[in-house]
Specification:
repeat; Ankyrin_rpt-contain_sf; Ankyrin repeat protein, putative; about 230 residues; Ankyrin_rpt; Serine Threonine Protein Phosphatase 5, Tetratricopeptide repeat
Length: about 230
């Protein structure tokens, strides 16, 4: 009964759900992956069904086995409309999954700037850290996404924030052999002398990686006068 109820949510037929509920279905019952009927309604943009479920007590912030809420899923699928619906009905915009990531982390990871902007405008903490101590701008740097990084900086992201390894976005750009991203970050205020937990600056990392990719070591010879450790 409960399994039929869960999967019927994707068909946007509230009357069918009402039938199962009247016969004892648990509105917050989960399948083997920890997903509820509300999850499927949100995933399939079944607004009428989602509203029906909420009105009957569905937990909008329920998590699956990955710790993801429906808002994480909306961000993953770049569905601004679904995110808007969820937040307007009480979804926690800063809820974290098992990796400590919020919906904003997910949107940025996929370079979904419009969805990211919506989340920020509705209270997403732009400097929230995941389990690795990474903020959204760390992820943008990992993805070599200049456009996303620029967007985040314009909305108040801390460009010199450190993760659990003590790495800033500039360390990450160096690690990923991205000269363009490194130049962009420096032009927007990244501290070239910032050290990670091993006492290494971005230039240390760039030189190490240059053994395999020489082009990166030139990333800031224009800025070399600013480096204190070389």
């Amino acid at each position: 009964m409960n399994e039929c109820f869960i999967y019927s949510a994707m068909f946007d037929t509230p009357s069918l759900l009402e039938y199962f509920l009247s016969h004892g279905a648990n509105i917050n019952e989960k399948d083997n992956n920890g997903k509820t009927a509300f999850y499927f309604a949100a995933k399939h943009n079944s607004k009428e069904t989602a509203e029906f479920l909420i009105s009957h007590g569905a937990n909008i912030n329920e998590k699956d086995i990955l710790g993801e809420t429906t808002l994480h899923i909306a961000a993953k699928h770049n569905s601004k409309a679904t995110a808007e619906f969820l937040i307007s009905h009480g979804a926690n915009v800063n809820e974290k999954d098992n990796n400590g990531q919020t919906a904003l982390h997910i949107a940025v990871k996929n370079n979904y700037i419009e969805t990211a902007e919506f989340l920020i405008s509705h209270g997403a903490n732009i400097n929230e850290k995941d389990n690795n101590g990474q903020t959204a701008i760390h992820i943008a740097a990992e993805n070599n996404s200049k456009e996303t990084a620029e967007f985040l900086i314009s909305h108040g992201a801390n460009i010199n924030e450190k993760d659990i390894l003590g790495e800033t976005t500039l360390h990450i750009a160096a690690k990923h052999n991205s000269k363009a991203t490194a130049e962009f970050l420096i032009s927007h205020g990244a501290n070239v002398n910032e050290k990670d937990n091993n006492g290494q600056t971005a230039l240390h990392i760039a030189v190490w990686h240059s053994k395999r990719e020489p082009r990166l070591v030139t990333m800031d010879f224009r800025h070399r006068s600013h480096f204190k450790d070389f």
